[in-house]
Design brief:
The protein has 3 helices and 31 strands. The protein is mainly beta. The longest helix has 22 residues.
């Protein structure tokens, strides 16, 4: 394994350059010039114990770890940074191709009023991400950064152009495909200052393409695949409206079954907010829009674009038990949410007022009509915008937050969820699992007995409509004690009391201890973790069952 990733001698040159900049920083500090070095570190490790009842496998290494550190230097118009990552070996639940260590991210950037130029690894997003989004999410161990060049030009305050070219990170190497991307955005208000418009109007357009050689002996595959789209954003004091449409030419790949149909996506969002009241409406339609720089890539590998989630990302354990993941091969979805505050000093609002959130979200498939070109072996299908397919997911919930007095407050939540496990988890209608539907209840009570000291108690239940092979119903109890602003102690029990197999009616006990000071955090947990799905922003990964001792250390400077 090359410690400097794929950058060879350039990597060492980059490190030397950073060292020079560091000493320059010390000199500049003496001369009262502003120059900074900042960053963060995170180390996660776990000792694993096999547990056949919960399905926790034997881990030969006993201890697995993920670690990374970012260092960024900034002075005037220049900035540079690196990230070092180490997986020895990668923890369970993450792709095993993350194995080893090295510098996986490095960049140098120079910015003026006209030009903003970056060489190295780049994170960027066009609009909502339907056509292009590169980002890093360590909780998912997801990184699709573009290694190449980015140029941002601002010839007028109303106009911004972005251009990028490079190859994407692929674990500890780079993907084969070359990505080219261009975006332009125009602010109507800044273009016509004299109009003094209170409502802002912003329009934008993007073009993204990839190149990958065709080496398939049986299929004729497009080597250059282009995609384009446009967007509009209207903003005033109370209203925010956003809409984006994207179109991609035929892009047969492993994920879509080497289908030659074009891809398209539409995402819209409308929100209104005023004192004590807000609501949001979102809708999207996705059709064959999986876009990767290598056609045989799978899972989270080498994704060029991102499809925004229109389902709620819950933080409590039971509502998040089976989170929804966007289906790039075809989906119609939407969300409506209302938030309001019951007035304080009233019978229904209490002395401090009561916050209420009501949300409904859903996702359905598309109705696909199979087609076949009579002159080739290329397979197609057609869809109609006025047709909606089988249900994939829905979530209706009501959440109430209320402060009773200076010491007591609570959150109560009810959710009704439907989950098509065959599609969402296995991308196959014939995977053999029944659909899941459940009532979910949460009660979260906090007692603050003195400044910086509190006790929090959670009671949660997931009550399945039917007792089936999906695991039945669950109950969760949690107690969290925070004796000071620096320490906390947590006890959790997840109990699968209604499993069809009586031997699997198990308690998943976990105890956690944490210490927090300034920007440093240390946590230690011991116990059992159930198998499931973990999601961030609509991007998900499977989490296997585990049993053992885990430690996490984070620090920011």
């Amino acid at each position: 394994m090359n410690w400097c990733f794929t950058f060879k001698n350039n990597c060492w040159l980059f490190l030397v350059s950073l060292s020079i900049f560091y000493f320059q920083t010390q000199i500049s500090a003496q001369n009262n010039n502003e120059a900074t070095i900042h960053g963060n570190f995170q180390i996660d490790a776990q000792y694993y114990e096999a547990d056949s009842l919960i399905g926790a496998p034997k881990v030969p290494e006993k201890v697995l770890s993920n670690a990374y550190g970012n260092i960024v230097y900034e002075k005037d118009k220049f900035s540079a940074g690196i990230r070092y990552e180490a997986y020895n070996n990668v923890m369970q639940g993450f792709d095993k191709r993350y194995k080893g260590q090295g510098i996986t991210y490095r960049f140098a950037r120079y910015k003026t009023d006209l030009l903003d130029i970056t060489i190295g690894n780049v994170y960027e997003q066009f609009g909502s991400g339907l056509l292009f989004r590169t980002y890093y999410e360590p909780g998912l161990l997801y990184d699709n950064s573009l290694d190449g060049v980015r140029v941002i030009a601002t010839p007028h305050k109303a106009l911004t152009f972005k251009g990028l070219i490079g190859r994407q990170r692929n674990f500890f190497t780079l993907g084969e495909g070359i990505v080219r991307a261009f975006d332009g955005e125009l602010s109507i208000n800044d273009l016509f200052d004299s109009l003094k418009l209170k409502t802002r109007f912003i329009i934008g357009g993007s073009f993204v393409s990839k190149y990958q050689p065709d080496r398939d002996p049986d299929l004729v595959l497009p080597e250059n695949v282009g995609a384009y789209g446009g967007r509009i954003n209207i903003i005033n004091e109370h209203i925010n409206f956003f809409a984006e449409y994207a179109y991609k030419i035929n892009d047969p790949s492993y994920v879509n079954g080497y289908n030659y149909k074009f891809g398209e996506a539409l995402f819209t969002s409308f929100s209104y907010a005023t004192q004590g009241f807000a609501f949001i409406l979102q809708a999207k339609r996705i059709d064959n829009m999986d876009f990767r720089s290598e056609r045989d890539a799978t899972l989270q590998q080498l994704l060029i674009n991102y499809m925004p989630a229109t389902t709620k990302q819950h933080t409590y354990l039971m509502p998040a038990f089976f989170p929804y993941a966007t289906q790039p091969n075809g989906e119609v979805g939407g969300m409506a949410e209302v938030q309001f505050k019951l007035p304080k000093n009233t019978l229904i609002g209490g002395p401090y007022g009561t916050d209420v959130t009501i949300n409904f979200s859903f996702a359905n498939g598309l109705v696909k009509h199979p087609l076949k070109d009579s002159t080739t072996t290329m397979h197609f299908y057609s869809t109609r915008w006025d047709e909606i397919g089988d249900p994939y997911y829905h979530d209706f919930f009501i959440e109430i937050q209320r402060k009773l007095n200076k010491k007591w407050k609570f959150t109560a939540l009810y959710s009704n969820q439907f989950y098509n496990k065959n599609i969402v988890m296995f991308n196959s209608p014939n995977a053999g699992f029944p659909n899941m539907q459940a009532h979910i209840g949460v009660l979260d009570v906090t007692y603050k007995y003195k400044t910086h000291s509190s006790i929090r108690i959670e009671a949660q239940g997931r009550f399945a409509y039917k007792r089936d092979i999906n695991g039945g119903s669950w109950a969760v109890g949690l107690v969290e004690w925070t004796p000071s602003s620096h320490f906390y102690l947590t006890l959790i029990d997840q109990y699968n009391y209604d499993n069809l197999d009586e031997n699997l009616r198990l308690h998943y006990y976990t105890i956690g201890l944490g210490f927090v000071k300034d920007s440093n955090r240390i946590s230690i947990t011991y116990g059992k973790q159930r198998a499931g799905v973990f999601c961030v922003g609509g991007v998900c990964r499977n989490v296997p069952a585990s049993n053992g001792l885990a430690i996490s250390i984070t620090s920011t400077f």
